[in-house]
């Protein structure tokens, strides 16, 4: 597969996520305006951060009068998944020049990562240049829509009726992203643990329970993987 073909393949493979990204980004624009941000502030946050989950988290905490430090810390914790995404992509695109990798890091979103990693694993014959091109193809569809629909939500938010229920896009988006990645028992155990711990720590103020749930889920998932490896070693 040539880099050009890989680029357009990535572009098309991310097309189904338009159904999620459009209402998701519009919802952020609406929520940001309701939280008191003007259009410029809303777009600045969306363009600079380009991470919907952490943006929603920061807004929710600021609306709850949480200290700015807590809002930033919690948003950072939510976005730590990007560090894991980066580590997973290094074997495939780590050869790229520093400037290219920096741009890829800025553009990284959940949808592009999920599509790219699955494709890289399913098509090991892809060349390094084709993998980079595929990644950018996936991003070139998602990012403009994210920016544009955030702007529409910020400008037209007050005119969108509540009956449209745009907030459905948030859970649907993460279910669509997470479900295909649950390929092993440690993945499933970590996911179930995170759900249980998020509910158990729901009483913690300023949504700090999310951080506790994530740390516990990662530890449980890692221990599950170590247990399976030790059991395989004993069986061998």
TrEMBL record:
Compartments reported by the entry: Cell membrane
Single biological process term from Gene Ontology: L-valine transmembrane transport
Its membrane topology: Multi-pass membrane protein
Pfam families on file: AzlC
Protein keywords: Cell membrane, Membrane, Transmembrane, Transmembrane helix, Transport
TM segment ranges: 6-31, 43-62, 68-90, 132-152, 164-182, 188-221
GO cellular component: a single term: plasma membrane
Membership in a protein family: Belongs to the AzlC family.
Protein name: Predicted branched-chain amino acid permease (Azaleucine resistance)
Species of the source: Marivita hallyeonensis
């Amino acid at each position: 597969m040539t880099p050009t073909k890989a680029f357009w393949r990535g572009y098309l493979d991310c097309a189904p996520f338009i159904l999620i990204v459009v209402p998701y980004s519009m919802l952020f624009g609406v929520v940001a305006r309701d939280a008191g941000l003007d259009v410029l502030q809303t777009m600045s946050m969306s363009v600079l951060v380009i991470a919907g989950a952490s943006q929603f988290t920061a807004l929710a905490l600021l609306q709850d009068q949480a200290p700015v430090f807590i809002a930033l810390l919690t948003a950072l914790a939510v976005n730590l998944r990007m560090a894991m995404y980066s580590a997973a992509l290094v074997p495939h695109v780590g050869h790229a020049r520093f400037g290219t990798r920096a741009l890829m890091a800025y553009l990284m979103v959940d949808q592009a990562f999920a599509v790219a990693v699955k494709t890289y694993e399913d098509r090991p014959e892809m060349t390094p240049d084709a993998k980079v091109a595929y990644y950018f193809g996936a991003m070139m569809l998602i990012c403009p829509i994210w920016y544009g629909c955030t702007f529409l939500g910020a400008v037209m938010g007050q005119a969108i009726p509540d009956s449209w229920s745009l907030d459905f896009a948030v859970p649907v988006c993460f279910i669509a992203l997470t479900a295909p990645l649950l390929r092993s028992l440690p993945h499933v155990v970590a996911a179930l643990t995170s759900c249980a711990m998020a509910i158990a720590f729901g009483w913690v103020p300023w949504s700090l329970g999310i951080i506790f749930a994530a740390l516990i889920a990662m530890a449980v998932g890692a221990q599950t993987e170590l247990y399976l490896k030790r059991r395989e070693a004993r069986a061998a």
